[in-house]
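Today's session is about reading a structure prediction critically. Students often jump straight to the picture, but the first step is always the sequence itself: look for stretches that repeat, for charged clusters, for runs of hydrophobic residues. Only then move on to the predicted structure, which in these notes is written as discrete structure tokens rather than atom positions. Here is the chain we will use throughout the hour.
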Amino acid sequence: MMMMTMVVVVMMMMMMMMMMVVMMMMMMMMMMMMMMMMMMMMMMMIMILMMMMMMMMMMMMMMMMMMMMMMMMMMMMMMMMIMMMI
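Below is the predicted structure for this chain, in token form.
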């Protein structure tokens, strides 16, 4: 009888150990997945920020070009006016 109980106890201990190992593995997997997700989110945020910066730069360049064109047009108009005056 004692032997049987000992065997049962040992079996239970083994089962508990196996369960603990499985739980630890699952926790590790979950942590890895969470870390990967966080890294992906960070990468996405950085990408979006870079895109925004690029868009802003493009807009600024376009504005500068437009201003330059306007200045050139004004200069041309002034020159024409002076020529007409003469």
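Discussion point for the tutorial: The two ends are 127 Å apart (CA to CA).
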